[in-house]
Amino acid sequence: MSFGFPWGLLALAAWGPLVAAYFLRRRQKPVTVSALFLWRTPRPRAEAGPRFERFTREASLLLEALAVLAAALFLADVRWGDEARGRHVVLVVDGGLSLSARGPDGVTVLERVRREAATRLNAEGATRVTLLASGLSPQVLAGPEAEPSRALAALESFQALGAGHDVTPTLLWAQELAGPGRRVHFFTDAMPEEGLAVPPLVRWTALGAPRDNVALVSAQRRDEGPLATVTLRVARFGGPEQVALRVLARPGVGAKEGSERSEPVTLPAEGAATVRLTFENAGDVEVSLPPDALPEDGQARLVPSAVRPVRLALAEALEAPARQALERFLSVAPGVEVGAAEGALLWGPPGTDARLTVGASGTLRTFVGPFFSEKGHPLLDDVQLGGVRWTAGSNPPGRPLVTAEDTVLLSEEDGRVHLNLALARSNLQRTPAWPVLLGNVVREARRAQEGFPRHQLNVGEPLPVVTEAGARYALEGPLGPKPLFGAGALTLPAPPVPGRYTLLREGDPVDVADVLPLDARESELRGRNSGERQASAEARDADGAAPAGRARWPLGVLLGALLLDFYVTRRP
């Protein structure tokens, strides 16, 4: 049993005056009569008895008390059985960035969703609400089965800033929470596309409107020494052919003041325009486009993203040709510090524990091709071996990456790279393949360093991170800290909301990355519309079985008790 309006039980206070009326008698004055035979039921005791007396009409009192109870239950909106559990309504809100778009009246789609959700809950007579937000990782905003006021408060504080996604998994999950045959209400800004399989028990409500929009679809920053290079891509989804891009560079280390500039950008009808800017000694760089239907995708804040240096050391046992070839490369390689230091990566001859081994042992053989390489491996990006004369010895351990006949020329073993190469009899070091190959080795070593390999990501992109074994890590973002498990190169799921994410080791910050609210799919607003797709008839019938208002049976009990009391009091 439950009560929709518990204050209605205050009507039970009428029991007090009712019982007092049956016990309390008004004292009558003595009246002298000649005989008592004219009285139907003479009561001599009532003429001069006590003020309170035991009454004789118990049935009437009980019936009137029952009438008061029935009236109180009706006012309190009593429910029994299935009705006592109330009406459970499941709402799903699209968490995509496009719901933050402003309509012609300046009201966002999300604000319209809030109003429609409140109206829908009131019309459905909801007593319990489960509120979900769709996304790459669906969220429970309220519930399961929370009070309607709590669900509406959670929806009021919710911000739709997610990436484009498939809403079907969230809708199927919502159906499980609603129960068999129960309807699910989904709010978004466009009707379902042709061919999209929408569950039949979902009532699809679109509250969007087509709008023109100019948006940033990518923003990256790279720092090399005091020079910062910012690369932006601006796309036009309708609207003006030229916009003014405002860029504000805050002062960085060694700078007394920042700089601000406005760059005119001509936008193509399809695709995006690329803008590249450079700054010296810049701190945070703020980029913004003129306000339009979706201001969120026209702003970005880029923090310094310096290339992390790689520390390398050359082993003393290296042969002279190998040492000279490696030193020539390291003298021009950017972001490389050479010297013996703690944590430096060692390059040395075969048979050592060096991260890169260069040399050949055993019987030497020379190859001029054909060379067979493992396609797609990052160490072989842009490595062209045409015209190379390669002299190799015995096969090194590990997984082969480059082979010639039955000889392994390059292999990888647990993060170590083995270069089976006798430089004194080869010409690889004099071809473009040599610096490209070593540059790939340095790049992979940089990627294996602790922290974020990328410092600017678009919303919806997986977050790569590198951790070291033996330490406790956590990822702190707009939704709070979250522990990380595993060691080495990890690929975390896409963060649910944009913002700044900090990698913590034992509670201390190690590196930061910014997830920007940029997504070309969500910035395309020209196809947004409004409309409604009703759920199937089975869902409406199932919902119709739920109570739509107050229970009527207490009124029947009230009327019956009053009629029976009238009959009892009318009897002689």
From TrEMBL:
Pfam families named among the record's database cross-references: BatA
Keywords, comma-separated and alphabetical: Membrane, Transmembrane, Transmembrane helix
Domain Aerotolerance regulator N-terminal: 1-76
TM region positions: 6-24, 61-80
UniProt keyword annotation of Membrane present: yes
Span list, region Disordered: 523-547
The protein's name: Aerotolerance regulator N-terminal
Species whose genome carries this gene: Stigmatella erecta
Lineage: Bacteria, Pseudomonadati, Myxococcota, Myxococcia, Myxococcales
